[in-house]
Structures are given as structure tokens and as C-alpha cells.
Amino acid sequence: MSDKPTVAVLGGGSFGTTLGGLMAANGIDVTLWMRDAGLAATIRETRQNSRYLPDIQLDPRLQVETDLQQVLASASLVFLAIPSGAFRSVLREAAPLLAGKGIVSTTKGIEQPGFLMMSEIVAEEVPTARVAVLSGPNLAREMAAGALTATVVASADDQLCREVQQVLGSRTLRVYASQDHYGVELGGALKNVYAIISGMAAAMGMGENTRSMLITRALAEMTRFAVHMGANPLTFLGLAGVGDLIVTCMSPLSRNYQVGHALGQGLSLEESVARLGQVAEGVNTLKVLRQKAEEEGVYMPLVNGLHAILFEQLPLDRVVGALMGGEQKHDVEFAALWFAGEWNRGEDK
Ligand SMILES: NC(=O)c1ccc[n+]([C@@H]2O[C@H](COP(=O)([O-])OP(=O)(O)OC[C@H]3O[C@@H](n4cnc5c(N)ncnc54)[C@H](O)[C@@H]3O)[C@@H](O)[C@H]2O)c1
Ligand SMILES: O=P(O)(O)OC[C@H](O)CO
């Protein structure tokens, strides 16, 4: 008997297809579950996911099915690549067959009400499951095309982290482990908001100084929020923090960046999202995050600025003026607190 787990990937979009293809190429027994029977048949026949990953040839060993019960019956390790808006409903349907299994969320979103991470939804819906999250600078199309990539698997369950490293790690993909699953998961969700801003700035012809300022101040802002919520600030120096922020704010392949770019070209939010035709989690995360930051009293000028543009009809030049005219504070605020002897390294969080 093989000591490798049998794997199911739920969600036949860009990321689920990519993960399934990579694991199949590793010789893992893996089945991709998707709801669209027509697309599933096309993938079996052509070995291409024409809707989400056109021109990428998938490993012939990747199995594709539409019967959820059948897929889950034999799997011991299950990856979830379902957009956050549908995550709970899919999980609830799957729950009777997930008890005791390893579940890895790859979804970078937040559920409202409750400001819930996807791993928290897993814990609610399948209390007996072993839970991990996967996050990092991972553009699906690049990974599927074999670009050298690194990611992070985070869980309190070391054995589960090792299983994920075993099935996913390859000559093109390094899988690092972390115990800060909250920070890793939060980082993946938060960076999408800043990618929208970065895409807007690029479309408006702003230069590289501006982009660098945006990315660096975004890192300060998301770290401030995450530390307030209990994450380890050092996580944000890693792949799931600054690593993911960089790729998503820099790459035109990022769907969140693409939404921002369309907005910067003058399209409405509805038009920008419709033109994309795939999920851009940052739009919903912006609403959820803005509300939570207000409740918690965390200073987040970039989030407030983007929210004002998209949902409060404030003109862009007024928002930019307010951002540039705000009080000039410290560069790295943790360093300032450190020098003042006031930073307790998050020990009371
Ligand atoms: N694409 C990437 O580069 C990437 C990388 C890392 C993480 N992620 C995250 O993975 C998650 C999924 O993103 P994606 O890129 O695969 O999205 P996508 O838009 O490419 O595909 C979404 C998939 O989910 C399916 N889906 C939606 N609602 C469903 C439901 N109720 N039941 C079954 N299937 C349903 C769609 O049919 C589609 O196959 C997101 O949270 C995203 O942030 C994406
Ligand atoms: O295409 P995006 O904007 O959803 O980003 C994809 C990944 O999260 C990048 O790590």
C-alpha cells in the first residue's frame, strides 16, 4: 500500500486546476472536483481547462469528476480552492464525508458576518477535521506553466504540514511550513485589497516610486491590522506576507490588480469585475476589512481611501490629496516603538 495520501481538490477554477495538475505530475493519486460537467468533459478530452487556464497542458494522470460524494469517499487529504463567497456552502455539502480528514484551504478571502477566516469556517463545519492553510506568492498560471515558485503551508498540525509538503513539493515548487496559520491566512486575504490600488496606480501612469511607496505602506498597514488581530508580525516578512503582496501588486496576471487597472482606466466597479470573469477576492475583502478596522480602531488610510473611491463616490484626486497630506509619521512603526521601549513583541496579543 502506498504511504502517499489520496487527494481531492474541490474547485475547478484557476487555482484548483493548477494544484491538481501539479500533484498529478508528482505521481499523487489526485481527483479534481468541479460542478461544470461540460468543462470536466473538455478537460478529460483535451487535458486543458479552456475556461480558466487556456493553453496550459495538464498532466494526463489528473482525474476530473463532478460527483462530490464519489471524489471524497476515497480521499484522505482535501484541498479547497473555492471562492470565499461559496466556501461555506460547498463545505457544508461535503462535510459528512470530511470527518477526520486533512483539509487545506487555499482560499484568500474573509467571511462576513464574523470576520471569519476560511480555516475557522472549516472548524465550524467539520469540527473533527485537521486543518491547514496554503498561501504565498502563487499566481496560478505561472505555477501551472512550471515557474519556480514557493508557498507556505500553515497549521498547528505538523504531520499535516509534512503531508502537504510531500504531495505538493517538487522541482518547481518549494513548500515552506509555518505555525502562524492565522497570520498566513490573513496575509493572503489582505494583500488583495492593495493589489487593486496598485493596478489603479499603474493604469493612471504613476511611476515606480509611487508603486514602491504603495507596496511598502501597504505592508505597514496590513501588518498593523494583523498584529492587532493576534498575528505574528514576523509572518509578514515571509512569503505569505510581503512575498504575496509584491507579486499581487506587481503582476498584470493578478485578477485583483486587473480590477484595479480597469478602474484606473475609468471603468465602473461592476464593469471591471464583469470584464474579469474570474474571482477577485479583494473587492469583498475591502468592505469587510474597512468595517472591521473601524470597529477595532485600527488606522488604515489606504483601505479607507479605496473604500471612499469605490463605495462612497469620493473623487480620486481628493482621496490622493488626503493621503499625501496626512500627518507624516514613522517609517517602521514597530522600530519606533522598539526604540521608545514600548513594543512588547506582541506578547499580550
Ligand atoms: N488563481 C490564483 O492565482 C490563486 C492563487 C492562490 C489562491 N487563490 C485563491 O483560490 C480561490 C479560488 O480562486 P480561483 O483563482 O481558482 O478562482 P476562479 O475564479 O479561477 O475559479 C473559481 C472556481 O470556483 C468554482 N465555484 C464557484 N462557486 C462554486 C460553488 N458554489 N460550487 C462549486 N464550485 C464553485 C467556479 O466554478 C470556478 O471553477 C480564491 O480565494 C483565490 O484567492 C487563487
Ligand atoms: O489573481 P489574484 O489577484 O487572485 O492573486 C492570485 C494569488 O493570490 C497570488 O498569490
From TrEMBL:
It is found in: Cytoplasm. PROSITE patterns: NAD_G3PDH (PS00957). InterPro entries: 6-PGluconate_DH-like_C_sf, 6PGD_dom2, G3P_DH_NAD-dep, G3P_DH_NAD-dep_C, G3P_DH_NAD-dep_N, NAD(P)-bd_dom_sf. The lineage of its organism: Bacteria, Pseudomonadati, Pseudomonadota, Gammaproteobacteria, Pseudomonadales. It catalyses: sn-glycerol 3-phosphate + NADP(+) = dihydroxyacetone phosphate + NADPH + H(+); sn-glycerol 3-phosphate + NAD(+) = dihydroxyacetone phosphate + NADH + H(+). GO terms for biological process: carbohydrate metabolic process; glycerol-3-phosphate biosynthetic process; glycerol-3-phosphate catabolic process; glycerophospholipid biosynthetic process. The active site is at K191. GO terms for cellular component: cytosol. NAD(+) binds at G11, G12, G13, S14, F15, G16, A140, R255. Keywords: Cytoplasm, Lipid biosynthesis, Lipid metabolism, NAD, NADP, Nucleotide-binding, Oxidoreductase, Phospholipid biosynthesis, Phospholipid metabolism. Belongs to the NAD-dependent glycerol-3-phosphate dehydrogenase family. Substrate binds at K108, R255, N256. Gene3D superfamilies: N-(1-d-carboxylethyl)-l-norvaline Dehydrogenase, domain 2, NAD(P)-binding Rossmann-like Domain. GO terms for molecular function: glycerol-3-phosphate dehydrogenase (NAD+) activity; glycerol-3-phosphate dehydrogenase (NADP+) activity; NAD binding. This is Glycerol-3-phosphate dehydrogenase [NAD(P)+].
